[in-house]
Amino acid sequence: MSEKLKLALYWAASCGGCDIAVVEINEKLLDLDAAADILFWPVAVDTKYDDVRAWPDNYVDVCLFNGAVRTSEQEEIAQLLRCKSKVMVAFGSCACEGCIPGLANFYSREGVFERAYLTTPTTDNPDKILPVTRTEVPEGELDLPEFYNTVLTLDDVVPVEYYVPGCPPQPHQVWAVIEAIVTGNLPEPPAVVGASEKTVCDECERKKDVKKVKKFYRPFEIEPDPEICLLEQGLICMGPATRGGCGNALCVQVNMPCRGCYGPPPGVADQGAKMLSALASVIDSNDPEEIERIIGDILDPAGTFYRFGLSKSLLRRARVV
Amino acid sequence: MSNETFEPRIVGFLCNWCTYAAADTAGVSRMKQPPNIDIIRVMCSGRVDPTFILKAFREGADGVLVAGCHPGDCHYSEGNYKTLRRMTLLRQMLPQLGIEPGRFRLEWISSAEAPKWTQVAREFTEQVRALGPLDWKGTVLAGVPVALEHACATEVTV
Prior knowledge:
The structure holds two protein chains of two kinds. By secondary structure, chain A is an alpha/beta fold. Chain A contains 13 helices and ten strands. Chain A has helices at about 15-25, 30-35, 50-55, 70-85, 95, 110-120, 155, 170-180, 200-205, 250-255, 270-280, 290-295, 300-305; strands at about 5-10, 35-40, 60-65, 70, 85-90, 135, 140-145, 145-150, 160-165, 190.
């Protein structure tokens, strides 16, 4: 039997959707199994951290790492897997650019703790106990990983060869990436793989005309025409500032505006700033007061434009004073 | 840093046809103005990508000023209307990122308004001075790695 490819998969600060995305290649899982051994995959394989520590360096051919880095444990495992892997792949939006966990960067650690452990309506915590890294108990000391003030991305803590964007990466792209790995057809690193070089708008098949918007709507407020550009109908569609590759504007095909999960297109440093720029320029008014009024419809500009990319944006996080 | 010794550092994006000419006139006429504004000349205020402003804040600016021709007077007909819309939206977003509205200003100053330029420069400098240092990398991003940019950093030129 010829030597099979060795794969490792890991989840850090993520929802588990990226692991599901791997399973979504369906019957091709059998092809994957024929070509590769999965040595480490916490969601599916019972390998312990100490097993990983025991491997020689560069033992794994490719590590698909999903999730952002927000605790010291995640950083430690990222470094461990980096040592053990020849190729490190930031798999999915969280590992690439922070994604939804990265929205915590609008708050401080104290703010996150207060909300999660004290003020949520379903929380019952009369002693106001918050996580600490070290706790004394009669049996001895207990350790918890440190929770960072800022959600980091994988390439903040280790060098990364490839980036697979998407929340989650779409199955056809996951398979394309696995095929490239198995056949040795990965491009020169660092590179974004499993996505296109165009924007979502470029790939969207809706009718596009001059964009002149007098009022912005939230998706539940209108039933949009299924043929016409959603932005022209006043829905905030992130298509102009989002990398394509999801499959001809997947969300837009079902009448939902693009939320921007494939991250910024090539050459763009800050997806939010580009979206802000594109959106403001379609407002159909030259009157300051009317412009203010139209912009007032956009309830959460930063959260909308940086829904997936705050951790990797230029400012990286909000200033909390 | 105490506010008595704090000298704000402000980045000013000025349009070539109006505000830059006004600032130039103010300079050659030896009008008194604060030295705190680092001027970047752009062909039109409509050229000012919000990316530039966020990058200025990240790289150490305490305030950012964008100034161009009066509405209706744009050398390119309507570039400054786009500026108006973009900057209105940006001004709404900046507080969500913890940047006070007072650190950002949009002004219309024609080439004939050198005195207005000096007045805006003075006012804005004092306003930012009162807000104190921003020091994004040193305080907000303290302990956060900032060397690596976005995934496609190799292609990013901004």
